[in-house]
Amino acid sequence: MADSERPVHEVLAQAVERYVAGDLVAAVPLLQEVVRREPTNAIAAHQLGLIAFQAGAVPEAAALIEQAIAADPSDPEYHNNLGVVRNAQGDRAKARAAFERASTLKPDYAQALNNLGSVQEAEGDLDAAIASYRRALEIDPGFVEARDNIDLAVGKAVPQWHFPMMQDTPRNDAYARALARAAPGKRVLDIGTGAGLLAMMAARAGAASVDTCEAVPQIAARAQAVIAHNKLADRITAHAKRSTDLALPQRAEVLVTETFASGVLSEHVLPTLEHARANLLTPDAVIIPRAASARGYLVGGPALEAQFFAFETAGFDLSPFNAMAPRKIGMHIDRVPHAVLSDDFELLGFDLMQPRFAAERREIAVTATAAGRCIGVAQWLWLLLDAETEYDNRPRPDAGANGWMHVLYRFAEPIELTVGQTVRLIAAHNRTAMTVALAP
Q1: What is the pLDDT of residues 296-312, one digit of tens each?
Q2: Which tens digit of pLDDT belongs to each residue from 230-265?
């Protein structure tokens, strides 16, 4: 019997059977026959839409799935799949509306919630995206895609280094001592709230008032929760904005900040301090820390070299691949065995009490104190909190939790050093980043 003579439900059943078996060549004409005879058959139109989407015919897929929705608007799967198609077309607004409709029709539809989170994240609404991913995982704790998505989204808002930084006891003690001396009775501004730790230290030290600001909304919200949890909400005003957008009722007498990158400058600390000095601080304000520098030593050793250079391996010379290696790498150098080939030296230093900071370039002569194969310069952060307190994260075998990594400035090729040999370096910064290289 010809398909056109068979009952529609039989043709549809066979079409679905062929589709499930992966035989799309046989399924398509059967589904088309169903739609020809019953244009309002939602199942057939939806199935044809999925096949069209798999074939790359995205506009056709959208039209067919919309046809299915017109016939049966109550099926959440149709709306979810229309959202997938609209997202592929780049129409995020329509995709979001479709995913929202699917999750309204079926509140425990984890796939639709995960898809909705992906669109919200692409639109820049990270809070809503995280909430959608979290809801999907509450429904299905084993949903791998949702788990990966929420971890990536949270990582965008709150990079993992926040956690070891908060547990860095030497750093915390250094800031606490400096604030205990500077904050009592003073108006304090904390730039870069994070979890609110420095703001709470200032309040505990007896500050007259504490204002703290955080540019990342998700972190600012968590900081407010932390501050409230520690019963300090009445003494600390948290602002979910950049310091450059901040207006204070009175200028602050103390500024405290830890907006330093592992490479010192990459979090724009110098422009931030310039703006604060001009707009938010009294002329005689205390700044904590009052000075910072990038310090380093010449470094080598087989274990460290193997991280960044390829030479002969398995009987082949791979050295041409070295041209692809980065010349600046953030890492915890103290976790890799290495050889220290010079005394410590300062690469670049910054008096943070100054009102302006100019770009700088300097040449440094370093004397090798040990013979060996040198692959570059290991750099760390040094801070002078006040006249009595210093902090640094120099690589040490017994180093504990530390959010700041070290930076390895890798030479193009290793150099063999003898004791007493002079290595000439160029260190430069443009106010927001720095570099170190061998001088010509």
Answers
A1: 999 999 999 998 888 88
A2: 999 999 999 999 999 999 999 999 999 999 989 999
d(CA 45, CA 34): 9
In Å, how far are 23, 49, 112, 184 from 43, measured between CA atoms?
Answer: 17, 10, 19, 72
Q: Which residues contact 397 (CB under 8 A, 6 or more apart)?
A: 334
> Regarding the domain delimited by 291-438, which CATH topology (the fold level of the hierarchy) does it fall under?
Hnrnp arginine n-methyltransferase1 (2.70.160)
- The reply to whether 291-438 shares the fold of 162-258 is no
pTM above 0.85, yes or no: no
DSSP string, 108-172: T-HHHHHHHHHHHHHTT-HHHHHHHHHHHHHH-TT-HHHHHHHHHHHHHHS-TTHHHHHT-HHHH
Does domain 162-258 match CATH 3.40.50.150?
yes
The secondary structure element, H or E, covering residue 362 is strand 360-367
Structurally, at CATH architecture level, domain 3-157 sits in Alpha Horseshoe (1.25)
Q: Please state the domain extents for the chain.
A: 3-157, 162-258, 291-438
Please give the Cα distance from 23 to 60 (Å, whole number). 20
Residue 36: in which H helix or E strand, if any? helix 24-37
Cα gap 38→8, rounded to integer Å: 8
CA distance 392 to 171: 8
Q: Cβ(209)–Cβ(418) under 8 Å?
A: no
